[in-house]
Design goal:
The chain is built from three helices and no strands. The chain has 79 residues and is mostly helical.
Length: 79
């Protein structure tokens, strides 16, 4: 479950923290417990990023559909 703090993170903040989590996991040298905590945090951050990207995709799709509707409406009226 994503916390309120995670929900307030911007995409760039979540992405940057996720990059740091991955870097620390790849570097090794952490205990099993620390590694699990990092992995769990990474999963939460990935969800935040995914939500931002899905929202951006919906906005783009809506804008493109609106533009298409305007183009179709404009060309039909000029015939």
């Amino acid at each position: 479950m994503t916390s309120k703090v995670d929900e307030a993170l911007g995409y760039e903040q979540a992405r940057d923290e996720l990059i740091e989590v991955v870097r620390r996991l790849e570097a090794g040298g952490t205990s099993l417990e620390e590694s699990l905590a990092l992995w769990e945090r990474g999963e939460e951050l990935a969800k935040v990023c995914r939500r931002w990207l899905e929202g951006a995709r919906k906005r783009l799709d809506a804008a493109l559909a609106e533009e298409e509707d305007e183009t179709e409406g404009g060309s039909a009226g000029s015939e």
